[in-house]
Amino acid sequence: MEDDGTKCSAVTVAVLVLAGCHLSLTLSKVPPPHDGGGQPARVEPAGHVASLAATVLAAYVASAACAGGGRIRLSLGSLLAEARRTWARPAATALYIELLTTAMASLLLTLRAFLAAAASAGGATAGLMAVSGSVALVGWLGPVLFAHSDIACRMSLVVAAAEEGYGGAAAVRRAEALVAGRRAHGIAIGLLASAIEQAPTWLCGDGVPALVVGPAVLAAKIVACCACSAFYYDCRRRHDKVSASRSTAKCCQVLWDRDLYVTDESEEEFGGSFECFRLT
C-alpha cells in the first residue's frame, strides 16, 4: 500500500469500506449493532471537530515541551505562529487516522451484525458461510486497515508537528519506521496514553458541567501526547545514531575500496614499467 502508483491508497480503501458497509446494511435491512439498550449514540460534528482541534493543539504543545529535554522550545507566540504555519500537516494526519479507525470500526460492526443475523436465522451452513466470509474479508482488508500500530498513530501527530514534509500517511509511516524494534515499549506507552486520556471520564462522571470536563479533557490529551512525544524523540535519537553509524561505515567502505583500486592500478603501472627488460 505504500506504492501509490501500483496499489490503491489506504484512504481509497477506507472510503470504499465505509460506503460498502453502509450500503450493505441498508440493502439487507440488518439493524446495525450498538451497545446498551437505548438508542445508538449520535455523532455531534461540533464536538468531533473540537476534539480533533484539541488533539492537534496537544501535539504542538507536547512537541515543544519535549524537544529541548524538558525545556519549552518555543514561546507562546512562536508556538501559535508555528501552529498557524504548519497546522495542515497534523490536521491531515489526524483525519487520516480517524478515517482508518472509523473504517475499521464500521467493518467490524457490520460483520458483527451479519454474524448475529446468521446466528438468529439458524442453520449451521449459513453460520459457517458467514464466519468464513468474515474471516476472508478481514484477512483481505487487514493489511490496509490494520497496518498501523496504536503507538505509531499516536506518534504520527508529533511527527507531523515536529518534522517538515510529513503529514497524513507519510507521518504514520515515519512513526512506524522510528518505533521499529521497540514494539514492547511502544505498546506500554500507548496503554499509558490511553489511560491518561480516559482519566477525565472516569473521574468526572456524567453530571459534571462541560466547562469543567472540556479543560480536563484537553489537559489529559496534552499529558498523554507528552508521553508519546518523549518516546518519539527518544526513538528519533536512536534512529539518527544508527543512521549516522551506517553512513560512517559506508563511507569507510567506499574509501577502503577506492584505496584498494588505486593500489591495484599502481601495482599494474609499476609492473608495466619493467616489461621492457623482459628477455625475449
From TrEMBL:
The protein depicted here goes by the name Uncharacterized protein
Ranges that cross the membrane? 52-74, 95-118, 124-147
Q: Which stretch is the leader sequence?
A: 1-28
The UniProt keywords, alphabetically, are: Membrane, Signal, Transmembrane, Transmembrane helix
